[in-house]
Structure formats: C-alpha cells, structure tokens
Amino acid sequence: MTPKTLPLLGLPLLLLACVDAAPTPAPTPAQPPGQPASPLGLAGSYNLDPAACANPGTGEGRLIIAGRSLQFYESQCTTASSTAVNGGGTALTLNCQGEGETWSRQVVLTPNAIGLTLAEAGRPTFTYRRCS
C-alpha cells in the first residue's frame, strides 16, 4: 500500500459512521384515532341471562362494551382508568350516569370461557355471557 491509497481505505468507514445501522421504525399507535380501546379488548354485547342474547341490547341484565364505554340497563359508564390485576382481569375506575345521577365505581372485569365476570367490593360478582 502506498501512502496515497491509505486515506481511501478509511473513506468507507467514515461514510458508514454517518448512516444509521438500522432505520428507526415509526411509532405504532396503541389504538387507531377515534377508536378508544375497550377494557381488556372485550367489546361486544353481554347479558346475565343467556336467553336474552336472542335480542341483543335488551333486558335488564345487559352489558354492552364499546370503546371505553360500558352500557348497562339504566346507566352508562366511561372508563376513567384501568390497571391489570392478577388472574387476567382489569381493575377499572368508572364514571357513571343514569336516572339523573352521576357516581364513580371501581370494578374488576375478568374474561372467562363464556364471557366475563364483573366484581365490585361489597357486591355480588356477576357472570355475563357473551352474546356477540
């Protein structure tokens, strides 16, 4: 090698130093815009009475989950916060309204083989069957 060709050997290394080894991928949004995430990804229609599933959205035991909204028979709740809990469930803080009143409640939704359970401190645990 001659002293004249030595600088040429360093040129490719210099060029590589200016280029990223791997392009940084664009961040992927957790949820498409305008489509809030459903708690646990459980969007759908549920009912305490499996026979009532023949007429989705009806009956006193219904629960419809869409986005961050939980629609019960006479009330509607919006998820204010959620936290994963042991056993595969999610603890939710809900802001609810119905029959002219507003309130907050803390529940745990846990998916199961037939739908989901809804547990709330001081109340019975309800098992909802998935209708759709």
From TrEMBL:
The lineage of its organism: Bacteria, Pseudomonadati, Pseudomonadota, Alphaproteobacteria, Rhodobacterales. This is CVNH domain-containing protein. Keywords: Signal. Residues 1-21 form the signal peptide. It comes from the Bacteria.
